[in-house]
Amino acid sequence: MTETTDFSTQISRQLNISYQAVNNVIKLFSEGATIPFIARYRKEMTGSLDETQIAAIQKAYELIDALDKRRKFILESIAEQGKLDDKLKAKIEQVADIESLEDLYLPYKPKRRTRAAIAREKGLEPLAAVIMQQEIADLESLLPEYINPEKEVNSSEDALAGASDIMAEWMAENPDSRERVRKMFHKQAVISATVAKDKTEEAKTYSQYFDWNEPLSAAPSHRLLALLRAEQEGLLKVKVAIDQDDALSRLKPLFITKNSSTATYCEAALTDAYKRLIAPSIENEIRTFYKEKADEKAIEVFTENLRQLLLTPPLGGKKVLAIDPGFRSGCKVVILDQQGKLLHNETIFPHPPQREAKQAIQKIKSLVNAHQVEVIAIGNGTAGRETEDMIRSIRFDRDLMAVMVNESGASIYSASKIARDEFPDYDITVRGAVSIGRRLMDPLAELVKIDPKSIGVGQYQHDVNQKALQESLKLTVESCVNGVGVELNTASEQLLSYVSGLGPQLASSIIRYRNENGAFTGRKQLLKVPRLGQKAFEQSAGFLRIRKAKNPLDSSGVHPESYYIVEKIAKSIKHPIEALIGNKQLLQNIDPKAFIDDNVGIETITDILAELEKPGRDPRASFEAFTFDKDIRNISDLKVDMTLTGIVTNITAFGAFVDVGVKQDGLVHISEMADRFISDPNEAVKLNQKVKVKVLAVDVDRKRITLSMKAAL
Fold it and tell me: Which CATH architecture has domain 320-441?
């Protein structure tokens, strides 16, 4: 049995996925395949597993592989010490979790100079062994043998103290004792918090936790992360503990085996072992375990929010006038063509202190007419509502859509190297306005240029494991980009870098090739891009679109490796390929089973037919404009029991934040959501969803708004 096959068996049982599918996924990963590629173009090999299942296989494989590598290291380490016997080797080879593996290694693990190590240097280990056996009747007569002033053992008390240190370490390194305490911590641990000394005023944000305790296993992820953040900031004292007397009573049967005079010394050593060694070690381990679980939950929330944000319905290719609002510094106005290219920019000053509203309105009308603007995008930051009011007051000679755009992260982009490289001759305000306009046209294409952590849809994103967060966010962006597909001739370098099989270097090469040789006319032309080989072409080609390509399939999601299937289908019904595309009636009469061969099965052929029916289909929903209540501008305008329409801006484990147009989002606690929003995944609240809410409370001074979706029904 090969190592990979053995891993496949474990993962198959763990995830309840067929062995063959797991083994094939692992094989595809070893060949350089990506999750989006495997999910989309290797369905026969995986049994049509989705991206989530494939990612779970990848994660499980990495964990088992890491455990296996650690196991091999430990076996080698103990063997080098000359202490690896067959019994210990068998135990190490059989354990299936990292905690048990580390427990077995602990007695052999190189460590700093402990109290027990010092006692051993004094020759007290034999005495510790005698006491642990609990068989000697007259311990006092034995003690003088171990008194040695040269080794700083000046009395019987010194000898007993050193022996107790050795016994405590033995007890603390015993795998059974550690496992018993570990199980107790998982079942019984209580997390408690008190305010740090002299930090009452500084820690008032965490005042609800000044005298807090609850079962650790029941603590929700957001509360655990809040407590640990406050502890990190030195504002709270946080402790995780179990009942010490209960723990000692459960440990005694392991070590107190006889009723002898030496048992008293063993009990004292056990108490010391628990308080000084076992409890602190297991507490740290349990803290890490629950912190990781809280991280996973926070990352899950963040990535789902990011997915929903990236898949926000796009406006599409229209001429846009975008405005980055402001008061004193004015409103930056830019004109973008249908591809998002900057055509014009200038600044207007309709608001205080300049109050040049008439001039601003005239300028807007002039720009709209001169550039045949179809849509106006307005950033929702400072002066956003005031600018929206001005735009809606203008009488244009035709219908124009005005849309408020969430500009979170736009300032991050405008100050970035990406923005400077893209617009070297324009200042930060112009770049910000361009970002607002492009975000309306194609949110996905624009948001990939911003660090996801800066978009403002996370929960404790700076407190979680940053490596795990970055990996999860990267996978989410890749999933969204490849799910939508990328127009090869207009995509930015950042967008291309997320395409399956490419990455930053090949994306840069594609941009250079495109700049030097003009637009791509076919997918095969990608193979002329320097350093883009057959594997990268295989992984990326199906996700890249070329509008108006010579081969119509190059603008679809059909992979080049399957073009021959389409040719066979077209030939069988005596129609050109062009006639198949978008022809639902024609395609519905085709029997997919007739085209199964050694390379493709029914899954791929069914996918091909669906793609031909709607080539290059965008999975995102259709764009819908949204407007706030025109009478609600500031938090002071809100009144209890008022019902409003808002838009969901962030989702957390404890509720959702909703923008009702007053520059301060309100919180809908999970308890104020209708049951269907919580129990039915299909009904769950989504980012950018338009919702009705009722105002429950308004705290103007603290800028806190409490809302209810349940009461608004």
Answer: 2-Layer Sandwich (3.30)
